[in-house]
Amino acid sequence: MNTGGRSSTRFHTKKPLKPSSSSILTFSLLILFLIFFIFYNDISTFVLPLSTQPPPSQFPECGVKTTERFLWYAPHSGFSNQVSEFKNAILMAAILNRTLIIPPVLDHHAVALGSCPKFRVLGSNQLRLQVWDHAIQLFRDGRYVSMAEIIDLSSISTVVQTIDFRHFLSFWCGVDLNSLCADDPNIKTSLLNKLQKCGSLLSGFHGNVDKCLYAIDVDCRTTVWTYQENDSDGALDSFQPDEQLKVKKKISYVRHRRDVYNNLGPGSEAHSSTVLAFGSLFSSSYRGSQLYIDIKEFPRDRRMQSLLSKIEFMPFVPDIMNAGKEFVQKNIGAPFLCAQLRLLDGQFKNHWKATFSVLEQKVEALKQEGSLPVHIFVMTDLPQSNWSGSYLGDLASKASSFKLHVLSDREEVVKRTAAEVVAAHSDLQRSHCFHQLPDVLLYVEETICSCASLGFVGTAGSTIAGNIEVMRKNNVCLEND
Asked: So where does this one cross the membrane (predicted)?
């Protein structure tokens, strides 16, 4: 029955209320705010890795009280490249008035950079972390040797302040490295975890931390460091990736020349940081430019110009130099030729013919000019057991014309020198982890070659050959022991 159009139903069912769009928006913003608040630290670390962050409580290293400002970098590749980087690190530390953290000698190619000319290199953060991890492993294996134990730093000691990496690590990370040798696995695990966090911070994986760490993220793909070049700061470098490489590798890098003092010295954000962390400091000439560091002179700074001259040639420590001279006098005892033949490593294994050709020409000339036998010191990575069938095998078979000399790590002079190097640096307070003598064979061999009075034949493109040439240029064998 209808009554005035009203429904006959006594109880009306209410329709559910639809939330307004404004209430949905408010609720969503509240949820997003809560998520952001909870995960703020993680978000700020990974979304803004290159920004400067305040030193939060999870970085106790930043609470270390010190007035010193340090410079750390990531050496890599073979020993000769590491020495080249070390010289550049000394230069940078002097320009920026920072204490240089002296690294260990890394295993040959344990850490690789890549290729600057091909614009294919490991990122600075990853490179630093690999160096950190390898340094810790060297210590645990009892094979840690500081660069200062091999290279004589006496000539630069009054110009640049230095600190051993182990000493820096101990006070900065707040650890006792001797505990790495502890029998208690819990202590060792805890220490390794602490070192891992410390290494991650110093490598730059948490970004820059205000007044604590400035991790440089640029490398040879975008930057060439200079100093006191008039009006060149920010200018384009002459070497740039060509169009073919850009298309092939899908890259868009642009290389700029930047003054290291203007960008990292007083007045810069980096200057106030306790630790300034570089990545690689390796550089070499390429297509009329330098790949990463182009600092050749200091026209307005005599002190720095003097330092530049000193680091051009930095000899080995006296124990190593004396060992090389001793071998020349006692084992060779005659004028001799040195042949540095790199045959098995990298690009060199494909150039045997060219390498032996240069040596053969020199040897035949000496054979015609002088008395026989011609003494030849052979420095090579090819084991003597594999000389047969090569030019070295031919020389060894002609005993009346040629006398070949080699040095191995089994010889007494090498073992004794290694022990002397350790004893000379007892101030580094070696831990009971240390149980192996350092490998000094390469350094003694280079010294021997620097004394070769009949000449030197080196492998083209080898940085080892380059080091020997510098030693010969500086007449190290004419110096008094």
From this structure: 21-40
